[in-house]
Design brief:
The protein has about 110 residues and is mostly helical. It has 4 helices and 3 strands. It has a 3-stranded parallel β-sheet with strand order 1-2-3, with helices on both faces. Helix 1 links the parallel strand 1 and strand 2. It is globular and about 50 Å long.
């Protein structure tokens, strides 16, 4: 399992290298899923949107930044770490044993359009 991002699907200004790396993870996930499926191995990714963490706190404190980001999320808020963790737990559980090659976006609807 890999941790991707909504940036694998949606362009964000000034984040081209980050988006490219996450796009690469999305394709790697699909490719490994196809290669390893005959051996009973599933490969998936989780793609969170902006999440409230110490890593993002300084960025989100910039004037207007939080409002700008939240405006693009239909649920009207940022993700919480435990929401991403729940997706990881699901993909690591037997409940997802027939799920492979997917990126599960935990994004409040950000990539739904």
């Amino acid at each position: 399992m890999t941790i991707s991002s909504v940036s694998s699907l949606v362009g964000h200004p000034a984040l081209a290298p980050y988006g490219a790396s996450k796009g690469g993870l999305a394709v790697l996930t699909k490719t490994l899923a196809v290669e390893w499926a005959p051996f009973g191995v599933t490969v998936n990714a989780v793609g969170p949107a902006y999440t409230e963490t110490p890593l993002t706190s300084k960025y989100l404190e910039e004037p207007g930044r939080r409002e700008e980001i939240v405006r693009d999320i239909p649920m009207g808020r940022l993700a919480q770490p435990e929401e991403t963790a729940a997706a990881v737990v699901f993909l690591a559980s037997d409940a997802s044993r027939f799920v492979t090659g997917q990126t599960l976006y935990v994004d409040g609807g950000r990539t739904a359009d």
